[in-house]
Amino acid sequence: MIWLVSYGLVVSLLMLFLLLKGNRLFVKKKKEIVELQKQLQTIKKELMPVKAGTRRNFRLEVPQIPCTIEFVDVEEESLKRLTNRKITSHIEDISTSGLKITSPYNLPIKSKLKIKVVFELNNETFEQFGLLVRKEEHIHQKMNQYGVQFINVSMKQQQSIILQLNKIQAERRQKRIS
Fold first, then answer.
1. Per-residue model confidence (pLDDT) at position 52
2. In this protein, which residues make up the domain named PilZ (predicted)?
3. What does the DSSP 8-state code read for residue 53?
Protein backbone atom coordinates (compact mmCIF):
# COMPACT_ATOMS: atom_id res chain seq x y z
CA MET A 1 0.00 0.00 0.00
CA ILE A 2 2.83 2.40 0.86
CA TRP A 3 4.41 1.61 -2.51
CA LEU A 4 1.20 2.43 -4.27
CA VAL A 5 0.88 5.80 -2.46
CA SER A 6 4.58 6.54 -3.10
CA TYR A 7 4.18 5.60 -6.74
CA GLY A 8 1.08 7.82 -7.06
CA LEU A 9 2.94 10.70 -5.40
CA VAL A 10 5.94 10.32 -7.74
CA VAL A 11 3.67 10.16 -10.79
CA SER A 12 1.75 13.24 -9.56
CA LEU A 13 4.98 15.19 -8.98
CA LEU A 14 6.28 14.14 -12.39
CA MET A 15 3.03 15.25 -14.05
CA LEU A 16 3.17 18.57 -12.15
CA PHE A 17 6.78 19.08 -13.28
CA LEU A 18 5.87 18.33 -16.91
CA LEU A 19 2.87 20.63 -16.71
CA LEU A 20 4.98 23.52 -15.38
CA LYS A 21 7.67 22.88 -18.00
CA GLY A 22 5.03 22.76 -20.73
CA ASN A 23 3.49 26.00 -19.45
CA ARG A 24 6.88 27.77 -19.69
CA LEU A 25 7.29 26.52 -23.23
CA PHE A 26 3.74 27.65 -24.02
CA VAL A 27 4.44 31.16 -22.68
CA LYS A 28 7.69 31.34 -24.68
CA LYS A 29 5.96 30.23 -27.87
CA LYS A 30 3.12 32.69 -27.26
CA LYS A 31 5.67 35.54 -27.05
CA GLU A 32 7.24 34.35 -30.32
CA ILE A 33 3.80 34.30 -31.97
CA VAL A 34 3.08 37.86 -30.80
CA GLU A 35 6.45 39.04 -32.18
CA LEU A 36 5.82 37.31 -35.52
CA GLN A 37 2.35 38.89 -35.70
CA LYS A 38 3.94 42.33 -35.21
CA GLN A 39 6.42 41.60 -38.01
CA LEU A 40 3.59 40.41 -40.24
CA GLN A 41 1.67 43.65 -39.64
CA THR A 42 4.75 45.67 -40.57
CA ILE A 43 5.20 43.68 -43.78
CA LYS A 44 1.50 44.04 -44.64
CA LYS A 45 1.77 47.84 -44.26
CA GLU A 46 4.74 47.86 -46.64
CA LEU A 47 2.83 45.78 -49.18
CA MET A 48 -0.40 47.76 -49.02
CA PRO A 49 -1.41 49.20 -52.38
CA VAL A 50 -0.18 52.69 -53.02
CA LYS A 51 -2.67 55.42 -53.89
CA ALA A 52 -2.57 56.55 -57.49
CA GLY A 53 0.00 59.25 -58.08
CA THR A 54 2.09 58.44 -55.02
CA ARG A 55 5.37 56.57 -54.81
CA ARG A 56 6.29 53.97 -52.27
CA ASN A 57 10.01 54.74 -52.41
CA PHE A 58 12.04 57.91 -52.72
CA ARG A 59 13.14 58.58 -56.31
CA LEU A 60 16.23 60.52 -57.22
CA GLU A 61 16.58 62.23 -60.57
CA VAL A 62 19.92 61.41 -62.13
CA PRO A 63 21.75 63.03 -65.04
CA GLN A 64 21.18 60.58 -67.92
CA ILE A 65 23.12 57.63 -66.51
CA PRO A 66 23.83 55.17 -69.34
CA CYS A 67 22.55 51.63 -68.92
CA THR A 68 22.30 48.40 -70.86
CA ILE A 69 19.01 46.55 -71.09
CA GLU A 70 18.88 42.86 -71.90
CA PHE A 71 15.58 41.19 -72.69
CA VAL A 72 15.58 38.11 -70.47
CA ASP A 73 12.09 36.68 -70.87
CA VAL A 74 9.40 37.64 -73.36
CA GLU A 75 5.93 36.13 -73.06
CA GLU A 76 4.44 37.19 -76.38
CA GLU A 77 5.38 34.81 -79.17
CA SER A 78 5.79 37.55 -81.79
CA LEU A 79 8.42 39.26 -79.59
CA LYS A 80 10.45 36.15 -78.70
CA ARG A 81 13.17 37.32 -81.09
CA LEU A 82 14.04 40.01 -78.51
CA THR A 83 15.17 37.38 -75.98
CA ASN A 84 18.85 37.87 -75.05
CA ARG A 85 19.08 41.04 -77.18
CA LYS A 86 20.65 44.12 -75.64
CA ILE A 87 19.96 47.80 -76.14
CA THR A 88 21.46 50.91 -74.59
CA SER A 89 19.40 53.48 -72.78
CA HIS A 90 19.63 56.23 -70.17
CA ILE A 91 18.28 56.38 -66.63
CA GLU A 92 16.21 59.46 -65.74
CA ASP A 93 15.44 58.62 -62.11
CA ILE A 94 15.98 55.71 -59.76
CA SER A 95 14.75 54.27 -56.47
CA THR A 96 15.14 50.98 -54.64
CA SER A 97 12.01 49.67 -56.34
CA GLY A 98 12.66 50.72 -59.92
CA LEU A 99 13.76 53.35 -62.36
CA LYS A 100 12.67 55.44 -65.32
CA ILE A 101 14.60 55.03 -68.55
CA THR A 102 14.64 56.94 -71.82
CA SER A 103 15.03 55.03 -75.07
CA PRO A 104 14.53 55.67 -78.78
CA TYR A 105 13.02 52.18 -79.10
CA ASN A 106 9.28 51.70 -79.19
CA LEU A 107 8.83 48.79 -76.78
CA PRO A 108 5.48 47.18 -76.05
CA ILE A 109 4.51 47.09 -72.40
CA LYS A 110 1.24 45.22 -72.71
CA SER A 111 3.10 41.94 -72.99
CA LYS A 112 5.25 40.93 -70.06
CA LEU A 113 8.86 41.86 -70.77
CA LYS A 114 11.37 40.74 -68.15
CA ILE A 115 14.61 42.66 -68.50
CA LYS A 116 18.00 42.95 -66.88
CA VAL A 117 19.26 46.49 -66.41
CA VAL A 118 23.00 47.02 -65.92
CA PHE A 119 24.16 50.45 -64.74
CA GLU A 120 26.71 52.22 -62.56
CA LEU A 121 26.21 54.54 -59.62
CA ASN A 122 29.39 56.10 -58.22
CA ASN A 123 31.56 53.46 -59.92
CA GLU A 124 29.54 50.59 -58.42
CA THR A 125 27.95 48.31 -61.01
CA PHE A 126 24.38 47.11 -60.49
CA GLU A 127 22.52 44.34 -62.31
CA GLN A 128 18.80 44.42 -61.54
CA PHE A 129 16.01 42.36 -63.03
CA GLY A 130 12.76 44.14 -63.72
CA LEU A 131 9.55 44.43 -65.67
CA LEU A 132 8.51 47.23 -68.01
CA VAL A 133 5.36 48.57 -66.33
CA ARG A 134 4.77 52.02 -67.81
CA LYS A 135 5.39 53.87 -71.06
CA GLU A 136 5.29 57.58 -71.84
CA GLU A 137 5.32 58.67 -75.45
CA HIS A 138 6.12 62.27 -76.34
CA ILE A 139 4.98 63.99 -79.52
CA HIS A 140 7.92 66.39 -79.80
CA GLN A 141 10.63 63.96 -78.79
CA LYS A 142 11.86 60.87 -80.56
CA MET A 143 12.44 59.21 -77.20
CA ASN A 144 10.07 57.12 -75.11
CA GLN A 145 10.21 56.87 -71.35
CA TYR A 146 9.60 53.59 -69.57
CA GLY A 147 8.95 52.72 -65.96
CA VAL A 148 10.86 49.65 -64.79
CA GLN A 149 9.80 47.85 -61.63
CA PHE A 150 12.60 45.82 -60.05
CA ILE A 151 11.83 42.22 -59.17
CA ASN A 152 13.59 39.86 -56.75
CA VAL A 153 15.65 42.63 -55.18
CA SER A 154 17.56 41.43 -52.15
CA MET A 155 17.91 43.53 -49.03
CA LYS A 156 21.64 43.82 -49.74
CA GLN A 157 20.96 45.18 -53.24
CA GLN A 158 18.45 47.69 -51.86
CA GLN A 159 20.94 48.86 -49.26
CA SER A 160 23.64 49.29 -51.91
CA ILE A 161 21.31 51.39 -54.06
CA ILE A 162 20.25 53.48 -51.06
CA LEU A 163 23.89 54.05 -50.12
CA GLN A 164 24.78 55.27 -53.62
CA LEU A 165 21.66 57.45 -53.89
CA ASN A 166 22.51 59.03 -50.55
CA LYS A 167 26.06 59.71 -51.76
CA ILE A 168 24.75 61.39 -54.91
CA GLN A 169 22.33 63.48 -52.88
CA ALA A 170 25.05 64.48 -50.40
CA GLU A 171 27.33 65.54 -53.28
CA ARG A 172 24.53 67.69 -54.71
CA ARG A 173 23.93 69.36 -51.35
CA GLN A 174 27.65 70.00 -50.97
CA LYS A 175 27.79 71.66 -54.42
CA ARG A 176 24.86 73.92 -53.50
CA ILE A 177 26.56 74.97 -50.29
CA SER A 178 29.93 75.64 -51.97
1. 46
2. 55-162
3. T
Question: For 60-177, CATH number?
Answer: 2.40.10.220
pLDDT band at 101 (very low <50, low <70, confident <90, very high): very high
Q: Where are the domains of the chain?
A: 1-47, 60-177
The residue type found at 141 is Q
Q: ∠160-164-169 over CA atoms, to 5°?
A: 145
Distance CA 87, CA 59 (A): 24
Q: Tell me whether strands 124-137 and 86-94 are parallel, antiparallel or unpaired.
A: unpaired
The pTM assigned to this predicted structure is 0.63
One-letter-per-residue 3-state SS of 96-141: CCEEEEEECCCCCCCCCEEEEEEEEECCEEEEEEEEEEEEEECCCC
Cα-Cα-Cα-Cα dihedral sign, residues 62, 64, 67, 72: positive
The beta-strand segments (E) located in the chain are 60-74, 86-94, 98-103, 113-121, 124-137, 144-150
